Design the sequence.
């Protein structure tokens, strides 16, 4: 998404518990065979935590593009191919509907086969693969874990070095999954990253100028997905002025207060909710550059 920097409000949010989340991930990495990094399929670059890359080091690392049901499918396919060209195992999933969940389980088993089978070479039984799913807040980690675990999920025993607050979840017969909290990084150096995280709801809405951010989201949608805006809000022709479009959406959606004025707070909620829940359609905010 290309925007002039002076048009982009500063979005920064790093609540105190994020430091604890980092420590938990760092302390428990030695217990797992693979880190499955969960990204938002609409913003794979912006939702990839640079802090996590440093923590993972040489650990086996797979990429999962979640919320693929909300993203532009053609662009999502480009992202999967992009990561594969970079030498990463990558998969797009829809954790709400369960699409590609079996493929994800197979990928984890395949990538951890060397670690889990080395015990058999020494005469012992192969142990379960140990996986950590990590990602930023609101990327759908809980939904994915619940979908992976299913109704037959059981907590496995506490393992050395794991606090009581952490739990291992048995996935099928061969995978033990370690649940980790969502992790943001202290400063978004690129203002567009902060903006994309605000668009998708990864940062608290109370920490930035919601009106400016909603107008910038409309700018992007006008440029890249105008038909979706027209269809959702029943607009024959989008006005050139984004503020005029903002008010027109409010009137179309009945966001009117005393005196016939539009209720800006309600319009902002409508725009954010429609985008984040996929009511506008399948939309991606980032595409691979190569």
Sequence:
């Amino acid at each position: 998404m290309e925007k002039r920097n002076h048009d982009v409000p500063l979005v920064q949010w790093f609540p105190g518990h994020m430091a604890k989340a980092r420590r938990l991930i760092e302390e428990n990495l030695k217990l797992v065979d693979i880190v499955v990094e969960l990204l938002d399929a609409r913003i794979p670059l912006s939702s990839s935590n640079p802090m996590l890359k440093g923590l993972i080091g040489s650990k086996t690392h797979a990429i999962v593009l979640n919320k693929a049901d909300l993203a532009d499918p053609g662009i999502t396919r480009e992202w999967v191919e992009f990561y594969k060209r970079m030498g990463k195992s990558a998969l797009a999933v829809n954790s709400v509907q369960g699409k590609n969940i079996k493929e994800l389980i197979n990928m984890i088993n395949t990538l951890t086969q060397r670690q889990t089978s080395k015990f058999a070479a020494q005469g012992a039984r192969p142990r379960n693969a140990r996986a950590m799913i990590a990602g930023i807040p609101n990327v759908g980690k809980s939904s994915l874990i619940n979908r992976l675990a299913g109704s037959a999920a059981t907590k496995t025993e506490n393992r050395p070095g794991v606090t009581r607050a952490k739990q291992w979840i048995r996935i099928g017969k061969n995978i033990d999954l370690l649940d980790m909290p969502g992790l943001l990084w202290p400063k978004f150096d690129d203002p567009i990253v902060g903006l994309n995280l605000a668009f998708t709801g990864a940062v608290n809405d109370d920490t930035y100028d919601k009106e400016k951010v909603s107008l910038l989201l409309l700018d992007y949608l006008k440029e890249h997905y105008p038909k979706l805006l027209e269809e959702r809000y029943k607009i024959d022709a989008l006005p050139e002025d984004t503020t005029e479009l903002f008010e027109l959406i409010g009137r179309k959606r009945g966001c009117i207060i005393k005196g016939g004025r539009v209720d800006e707070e309600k319009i902002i909620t409508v725009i954010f909710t429609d985008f984040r829940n996929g009511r506008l359609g399948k939309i991606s905010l980032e595409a691979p550059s190569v």
Q: What stands out?
A: The chain has eleven helices and six strands. Residues 13-179 form a domain with the Rossmann fold fold (CATH 3.40.50.300).
